[in-house]
Design goal:
The structure is a homodimer. Chain A is of the alpha+beta class. In chain A, about 40% of the residues lie in helices and about 20% in strands. The first copy, chain A, contains twelve helices and 14 strands. In chain A, a hairpin with a 7-residue loop joins β8 (about 165) and β9.
Chain lengths: ~350, ~350
């Protein structure tokens, strides 16, 4: 890629860690956040990697996000807990909640931890990866600033709420699903606009709710959910798990990281973690996971040159490659990270 | 509808209960199963209501399903449990597992109960409704006989695994989502075939995995998952929760209710139940749920005459109407139910 170089994972992690610390984030929290963002970069999910560190730190600098939150568990009973994020960084709140959820699952078989008063927390895949590395199954999600209309509606009221699911494997890539509820990401529509291309029918509607193939009309309108009312319903279910059950903000109470810079985002997250060792034991669990993998892998592919994939395989291959040869990083982003790591004030960035 | 009459809910429930009892199902199990099947009919989900009782009882009669299973909890720790369905009827295994999941959630905040060696368990909505009536949030799913190809595959290897989510409301219909992973049900494609109509692009592929608008080719091929790789990924995640984590059958190890009559189905189910009273308390929970509802209801609709709906609203209205005026039922089905309730042997039925 032009304008790109590569950087070893450890070096990127150090830059992220130092950037957070210089912004006033305590060491353990800085490590938690760096693990999540660099984890995304390593998997090739660069839209949700250290690129996001720049606006996060800009909001700390503006006094909007709290660099050193007091992460309190406000309710806990056996396997369930509710955490107040105290307006901290999303990956700090999310990463800490995941740690607690993993501990509670080990002692209770299953856990449910939800958080309120957090922010954008990056991709879900790195959280799922961490749970899988501890031999735990993880189902997680977050609500988000609304960019979708309810099914049959003509106003932005629902977040394109992502959801993730991770299940460990003994050898070979973990099962890691990380998806948002729209058919395509807005970023993909922005790329069509840049190339002056129309978009396929079914991706989006204009601001009146009328189907459109014009990327500009689509960006002023709404992306459409997968399966119509089905994706809309799942997005609402995620909002209930992350927003309602944490006693936090829901639907259009959630603010944008970019469009409402003067406000905290008030995002909610949730983690449901299950310990297979406690349900059926690791031996039977692994045997059954491999039965599922074998069934998919033995399936005749539509294209003989493209064998069937399972969620997480591409990201795992990417991570393997990037661990060897370094992570590709944009020159400008690397320069910004180096400046932040050296303690310079952040320059704000336009929406990704 | 021609060939239809109406029957009061209580009368239908009595017929179902007696039919199960006459087939050798113990009273409490018969009641559990009748609650689920009649609950589906009441909500207007007649494809998954008492119509299913006929093949269920036919399989008992053939000695394939176990009318009086010993439902053993084979692993339990705090909030998590694994049940062996002992080849019992799906709604008996599922309804019993849900009851245990609700009890465990009340004492642990959250519970995870999964089952193996069960059968087709009907619609998910009646299970979600039961949890909601107990003021509990419920996330449930089941694996199923494969009718979908993996994304990029050209063979039936994945069930069109349904998933459901219920969240209670203080007044007004509960939030109840009950969806399968295909864009449309195979039944809808069968209707197009009967009417000699083509189907829209994107619904299905033929048996080579090539997109088709011919309903006959589609029925010989595979229905497509919502959001392509996204729906495929969710279907696999459900298989992990229901099949892998119960130590049961997965993917194409699960048998068809209709096509493999000589075998038990070996279906797996799961229930994750959360008690809002234990997380944030019912008062804040209800306030937050209503905030979510208000946001959707205040959304400007695309069509001024069709206000935005939330999952479960249509089914709740139908149930209200059917409670008043009786449930519409096909004459032939009613005749079959009356015969079964009187202890006659079942006549087998073609696939619904």
């Amino acid at each position: 890629m032009p304008g790109c170089t590569t950087i070893p994972y450890d070096e990127l992690h150090t830059l992220a860690l130092q950037s957070f610390e210089k912004a006033g984030v305590p060491l353990q929290d800085a490590r938690t956040a760096a693990d999540i963002l660099c984890g995304a970069d390593l998997m090739g999910i660069d839209t949700h990697g250290t690129k996001r560190l720049i606006p996060y730190i800009a909001r700390i600098h503006d006094g909007i996000f709290n660099p050193a939150p007091d992460l309190r568990i406000i309710h806990q009973k056996a396997g369930s807990a509710v955490m107040d994020g105290d307006n901290g960084l999303g990956p700090v709140v999310g990463g800490t909640a995941l740690r607690i959820a993993c501990e509670l699952a080990s002692s209770n078989g299953v856990s449910f931890v939800c958080c309120r008063n957090s922010q954008h927390f990056g991709a879900i895949a790195p959280y799922a990866q961490q749970a899988c590395d501890q031999k735990l199954v993880c189902f997680a999600g977050t609500n988000a600033y609304p960019t979708m209309a309810p099914w049959g509606g003509a106003e932005s009221k629902v977040g394109n709420n992502p959801v993730g699911f991770g299940a460990p494997r003994q050898s070979g890539p973990h099962f890691i699903l990380d998806i948002a509820m729209s058919i395509v990401a807005r970023g993909k529509i922005r790329k069509s606009l840049e190339k002056n291309e129309s978009i396929p029918e079914g991706w989006a509607v204009d601001k009146q709710g009328v189907p459109t193939t014009d990327p500009s009309e689509a960006l002023n309108g709404f992306v459409l959910p997968i399966g119509g009312h089905k994706g809309y319903g799942i997005a609402l279910a995620i909002d209930i798990l992350a927003g309602v059950l944490s006693g936090g903000a829901v639907a259009d109470e959630v603010n944008s990281l970019f469009k409402q810079k003067e406000h905290a985002q008030r995002v909610g997250h949730f983690f449901i973690v299950i310990d297979p060792a406690v349900t059926i034991g690791m031996e039977l669990y692994h045997e059954r996971m491999e039965a599922l993998y074998t069934a998919m892998k033995n399936c005749r592919p539509q294209d003989a040159h493209s064998p069937v994939l399972l969620p997480g395989e591409i990201e795992s291959r990417t991570a393997e490659k990037y661990r060897r040869s370094g992570i590709p990083i944009d020159h400008d982003l690397l320069t910004s990270l180096r400046r932040l790591a050296a303690g310079e004030a952040p320059a704000d960035v336009p929406q990704a």
